[in-house]
């Protein structure tokens, strides 16, 4: 099991449930575990029945488990506050407003969110960091950013010396962190990327495309989990048998086309919600995914 585990996939396939179950399982074994969501529409609060935010919070009822929700808006607010706070006693109010307006663009929001994501990979107090990510396109953009920003800072240093969030001199330490993040993401002994999908055409096709894009980014340690598979003991019922026959060719397609292990998780009769249900899912998950 690697220190960093990313769960991603098409919306609605169950990545939040499986990432949460993994985090609960690891924490229950005594490992200090951080569960992070980069999904702006996160429902970790509903899954655990507890409110979370940008600041790391302990999970009630699960020792050793902490959760952090990376919200773009809250990340931007804290980023601006860190930048402006030292200037409040130095510059007049109108100048501060002008600086704040310049920091309100999408570029600053993206880098503020990205900085929070990178910071999660530099927390030595946690033995495992589990990422519950946004639907695949958003996640691929996030994973591209270490390389993109590192290159942008390097190119800007040769030209104007300015980026959309300030001078390159002030970003030297950030570039070092971005370069480290690239090394961590591409090290198969440290990072695993888990695609969660379902046994139907569109999620499987999206997974295969995204897997190839990650391969091109040199993120090659990948696992696929097909979620919501009809359990074997239910396949004699006429309705379930028909559903199973629909799922089977897509499962075979995934096994043939995905370059990595493919595991199957059952369809549960009950909603995956609450600590006890997450423990149940975690027990099943360890049978299909080496945890």
Describe, in plain words, how this protein is organized in 3D.
The strands form two sheets. An eight-stranded mixed β-sheet has the order 3-4-2-5-1-8-9-10, sandwiched between helices. A two-stranded antiparallel ribbon has the order 6-7. With 291 residues, the chain is α/β, with parallel strands linked by helices. A hairpin with a 6-residue loop joins strand 3 (57-58) and strand 4 (65-69). Helix content is 50%, strand content 16%. Helix 3 (72-84) crosses helix 5 (106-120). It comes from Fodinisporobacter ferrooxydans. Residues 2-286 form the ArsA/GET3 Anion-transporting ATPase-like domain. Belongs to the arsA ATPase family.
Q: How many helices?
A: 10
- Could you spell the SSE succession in H and E letters? EHEHEEHHHEHEEHEHEHEH
Strand order of the largest sheet: 3-4-2-5-1-8-9-10
Secondary structure: helix percent? 40-55%
The geometry reads as globular
Structural class: alpha/beta
**What is the radius of gyration computed over CA atoms, rounded to a whole number of angstroms?**
21 Å
Strand content: 15-25%
Give the helix/strand layout.
Blueprint: E1 4-8, H1 15-28, E2 33-37, H2 44-48, E3 57-58, E4 65-69, H3 72-84, H4 93-102, H5 106-120, E5 128-132, H6 136-158, E6 162-163, E7 166-167, H7 172-186, E8 191-198, H8 201-216, E9 222-229, H9 238-257, E10 262-266, H10 275-288
Helix pairs in contact: 1-10, 3-5, 6-7
Short descriptors:
291 residues, 10 helices, alpha/beta, P-loop_NTPase, two-stranded antiparallel ribbon
């Amino acid at each position: 099991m690697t220190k960093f585990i990313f769960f991603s996939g098409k919306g609605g396939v169950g990545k939040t449930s499986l990432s949460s179950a993994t985090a609960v399982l690891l924490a229950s074994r005594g490992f200090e575990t951080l569960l992070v969501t980069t999904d702006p529409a996160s429902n970790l609060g509903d899954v655990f029945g507890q409110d979370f935010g940008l600041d790391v919070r302990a999970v009630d009822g699960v020792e050793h488990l902490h959760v952090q929700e990376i919200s773009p808006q809250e990340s931007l607010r804290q980023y601006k506050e860190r930048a402006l706070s030292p200037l409040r006693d130095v510059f007049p109010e109108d100048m501060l407003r002008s600086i704040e307006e310049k920091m309100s663009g999408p570029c600053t929001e993206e880098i503020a969110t990205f900085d929070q994501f990178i910071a999660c990979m530099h927390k030595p107090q946690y033995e495992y960091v589990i990422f519950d990510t946004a639907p695949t396109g958003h996640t691929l953009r996030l994973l591209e950013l270490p390389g993109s920003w590192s290159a942008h800072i390097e190119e800007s240093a040769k030209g104007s010396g300015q980026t959309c969030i300030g001078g390159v001199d002030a970003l030297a330490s950030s570039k070092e962190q971005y370069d480290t993040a690239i090394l961590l993401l591409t090290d198969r002994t440290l990072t695993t990327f888990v695609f969660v999908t379902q046994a139907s055409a569109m999620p499987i096709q999206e997974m295969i495309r995204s897997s190839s894009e990650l391969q091109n980014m040199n993120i090659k340690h990948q696992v696929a989990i097909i979620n919501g598979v009809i359990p074997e003991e239910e396949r004699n019922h006429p309705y379930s048998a028909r559903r199973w026959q629909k799922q089977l060719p897509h499962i075979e397609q995934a096994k043939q086309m995905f370059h990595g292990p493919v595991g199957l998780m059952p369809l549960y009769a009950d909603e995956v919600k609450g600590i006890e249900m997450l423990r149940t899912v975690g027990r099943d998950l360890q049978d299909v995914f080496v945890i």
